[in-house]
Specification:
The protein is of the alpha+beta class and 201 residues long. Helix content is 32%, strand content 32%. Strands 1-2-3-7-6-5-4 form a seven-stranded antiparallel sheet, with helices on both faces.
């Protein structure tokens, strides 16, 4: 429970801009602007050491938020959109929804580290880099503000990734790393659009 809470806090902090960490907009080849930000992770037991690249974009889907939320929180759907699970890794996921919005946040966690947490070790020392989705309703909600499966509204979806691009904290960020993350975001957006459209048909 504590690890999941820390994951959500880390995700929100990792994709929030500040005066020290500002977003840069990339002029992408697609219809969506991708924003990127870098941070150095040094002496933080809860994050892997090195250069962390955060990337995010937002786009509209002609699908009600509940359907988008249900799709993204499903492990099989997530594997279709962002790739399968890595060896020796588990996926920790936290999701929440209400009438004002929803999120699905996840992070790969080393199996050995997760086993240590399960036997009572301190979860604050498990390095995680969460990624995830924010879903906001665009249009009217159901009766009493509840999310509905079908309806006239759509969804505004934000996709955000945090990726360790170099394990040396003093390394320079390469243009290749930025291009790779930009491509990852663009491919994820297209896969989500295609999968959600197919599930809505």
């Amino acid at each position: 429970m504590k690890l999941a809470e820390r994951m959500v806090i880390s995700f929100c902090g990792g994709v929030s801009a500040s005066t020290a960490h500002t977003w840069t907009t990339l002029s992408g080849s697609g219809a969506h602007d991708v924003r990127v930000m870098t941070r150095k992770s040094i002496d933080d037991p809860g994050r892997p050491p090195g250069i962390v690249l955060s990337a995010a974009t937002s786009f509209w889907l002609p699908v009600p938020p509940k359907r988008v939320f249900d799709f993204l929180r499903d492990e099989q759907s997530r594997n279709e959109t962002i790739g399968g699970n890595q060896n020796n890794m588990l996926i920790l996921q936290e999701s929440c929804t209400d009438s004002t919005g929803s999120y699905v946040i996840y992070a790969p966690v080393d199996v050995i580290a997760m086993n240590l947490v399960l036997v009572g070790e301190d979860p604050d020392y498990v390095p995680i880099l969460p990624s995830g989705f924010y879903i906001l309703p665009d249009g009217p909600n159901g009766h009493g503000g509840e999310l509905v499966e079908d309806g006239p509204g759509g969804s505004l979806l934000t996709v955000a990734f945090q990726i360790l691009v170099d394990s040396a904290p003093n390394a320079k960020l390469s243009l290749g790393s930025v291009a790779t993350v930009n491509n990852l975001i663009a491919c994820t957006v297209e896969r989500i659009k295609a999968c959600v459209a197919a599930n809505s048909a």
